[in-house]
Design a protein that fits this description.
With 338 residues, the chain is α+β, with helices and mostly antiparallel strands. Helices cover 45% and strands 17% of the residues. It is built from twelve helices and ten strands. The strands form three sheets. Strands 7-3-10-9-8 form a five-stranded antiparallel β-sheet, with helices on both faces.
């Protein structure tokens, strides 16, 4: 285990390297930080940190930079989440509060995260599988053609066209709409199949085929993996960090273009807790020079989707973690009020 003093030295190295982009030497550390020891002692502590793999010497200069292992210890032991200022919190609330629908919420969230962190922002649409039903609407387009509209508690709207096996009267349609909503509104998607399985039997014989067709369409909508939608923004921010990527930036950009990769990154986050993946902790080869900060968001205690940022390992972790957490909290409040 590292001593508290060496942990302080590591913290100072991370902070200085993130702030200056330059390898950090012992003299600079003693001048910028109140470590309470001589430069010789700091040099000794840095030698131990290097032997343990927490810092490395990038070239022949006297300075050192943090390794992935050093950043990991910094995040786990040393970095508190930096709270946002009151003006920042008001700006987030005002910006997101103007959203008109779910697509607008997601689009605004991506822009906001990218601006606050100056990283690449990724926001996943709320998952259908973790949502509850707010309302099911059935509209007659013709005597034998209906539109089914499913509205979730997260503001998501799914529409499906239904070709009926026989004409379906307005009275029967109103009856089906009322019975369907009485059973499923406020219920989790996973509960719906059992709640509606006997519904066709309560209708007249001539209507049962159409009722069964409507229910089949509804259940298919509930289980489709349409929740695997996401939005990405701020990719141009990476151009500011070209020197942070040891080879070229192209592998990072290519990885960010693959939705499967991004969904996997977000999927590694716990439901509501924050997850920080640093450097080689990211399984995708193109992202081993990046850090990924993700957190779940939702309209209640359970996360319905994830959001986060991707940037270089030389990242302001306390500030980034604070921004990601704050934005997730505000998005959750908006969904709860929508």
């Amino acid at each position: 285990m590292l001593s508290e003093r060496r942990l302080e030295v590591l913290r100072a190295i991370v902070q200085d390297y993130v702030g200056t982009e330059e390898p950090v030497g012992s003299k600079a550390l003693t001048e910028r930080h109140r470590l309470g020891v001589s430069p010789a002692t700091v040099r000794n502590d840095m030698a131990v940190l290097e032997d343990e793999g927490f810092i490395a010497q990038p070239h022949t200069s006297a300075g050192r930079i943090p390794t992935d292992k050093g950043y990991r210890l910094f995040v786990d032991r040393l970095a508190g989440v930096k709270p946002l200022s009151s003006p920042e919190r008001r700006a987030i609330h005002n910006f997101l509060d103007c959203a008109v629908d779910l697509d607008d919420v997601v689009a605004r969230t991506v822009r906001l995260l990218a601006q606050l962190t100056r990283q690449v922002a990724i926001v996943q649409y709320p998952s259908l599988t973790r949502s509850t039903v707010r309302h099911v609407e059935l509209l007659a387009l013709s005597p034998a053609r209906l539109m089914l509209v499913l509205i979730t508690d997260t503001g998501r709207v799914e529409q499906r066209m239904i070709d009926c096996p026989a004409p379906f009267g307005e009275t029967s349609l109103a009856d089906l709409r009322a019975r369907l909503n009485s059973r499923v509104v406020g219920r989790r998607f996973s509960d719906v199949p059992l709640l509606v399985q006997d519904l066709p039997d309560s209708f007249e014989n001539e209507d049962r085929g159409t009722v069964a067709t409507v229910l089949t369409t509804l259940l298919e909508t509930l289980v489709e993996e349409t929740e695997e939608r996401l939005m990405i923004g701020g990719t141009s921010n990476l151009t500011r960090f070209g020197h942070d990527f040891p080879l070229v930036i192209r592998p990072v950009l290519e990885a960010l273009e693959e939705q499967v990769v991004l969904l996997k990154l977000l999927g590694e986050a716990t439901d509501s807790g924050m997850t920080v993946r640093i450097g080689h902790e990211n399984a995708h080869e193109g992202l081993t020079s990046t850090s990924v900060v993700t957190v779940g968001y939702g309209s209640g205690d359970e996360a319905v989707a994830k959001l986060g940022v991707v940037g270089p390992t030389r990242m302001d972790y306390p500030g980034t973690m604070g921004a990601v957490r704050a934005v997730a909290r505000y998005v959750g409040q908006i969904l709860a009020e929508s």
